[in-house]
Amino acid sequence: GSFHIFQKCLPFRVKVIHVIRQSFVYDILISIIRHLISSKYVERIHLHGTNFEDLHKELPFDILPEEYGGCGPALDFDAFWSLVDAQEPSFVESNGYGYLKTKKKQTGFAK
């Protein structure tokens, strides 16, 4: 399922996942998911909440934006979404790829 894809099939290596300002619902969800994924990935998920001191131990100040106690540039979500919107034609084109469906029905087990 989805967890297998996350753990085994991503085209990149997940070294660490930092989650900040998560709600209590997210904490509950992660506590459930931790039982479904490998211990290697459990160790790579760090929940910081609003405790930026722990985050500062993991990431340098100069790459963190001001909103998270760093000295990097402030986050500009409008600019980010403008970039995403500009890529919409590429997303639409990518959605056209996939598998061809055959009209032949398979019966029994594949040999």
Spell out the key features of this protein.
single chain; 111 residues; mainly alpha; Phosphatidylinositol Transfer Protein Sec14p; 2 strands; flat; CRAL-TRIO_dom; CRAL-TRIO_dom_sf; CRAL-TRIO domain-containing protein
How would you sum up this structure, described in words?
The chain is mainly α and 111 residues long. It has a domain at 1-8 and 15-72: Phosphatidylinositol Transfer Protein Sec14p (3-Layer(aba) Sandwich), CATH 3.40.525. The protein has helices at 2-9, 24-33, 39-44, 52-58, 77-86, 88-95; strands at residues 17-20, 45-49. It has a two-stranded parallel sheet. The chain starts with a helix and ends in a 16-residue tail after the last helix. The mean pLDDT is 84. Residues 1-76 form the CRAL-TRIO domain. This is CRAL-TRIO domain-containing protein. It comes from Ixodes scapularis.
In short:
The protein is mainly alpha-helical. Helices cover 44% and strands 8% of the residues. A two-stranded parallel sheet has the order 1-2.
Produce the secondary structure layout.
Layout (H helix, E strand, L loop, with lengths): L1 H8 L7 E4 L3 H10 L5 H6 E5 L2 H7 L18 H10 L1 H8 L16
Parallel strand pairs: 1-2
Q: Report helical residue fraction.
A: 40-55%
Strand numbers in spatial order across the main sheet: 1-2
Secondary-structure-based class equals mainly alpha
Low-confidence stretches: none
Level-2 CATH architecture of the domain at 1-8 and 15-72: 3-Layer(aba) Sandwich
Q: At the fourth CATH level, what is the homologous superfamily of the domain at 1-8 and 15-72? A: CRAL-TRIO lipid binding domain
Helix-strand pattern, N to C? HEHHEHHH
The count of DSSP E runs of length 2 or more, i.e. the number of strands, is 2
Task: Assign the CATH class of the domain at 1-8 and 15-72.
Answer: Alpha Beta
Give the C-alpha Rg.
20 Å
* Biggest sheet record: 2 strands, parallel
Protein name: CRAL-TRIO domain-containing protein
Domain CRAL-TRIO: 1-76
Organism: Ixodes scapularis
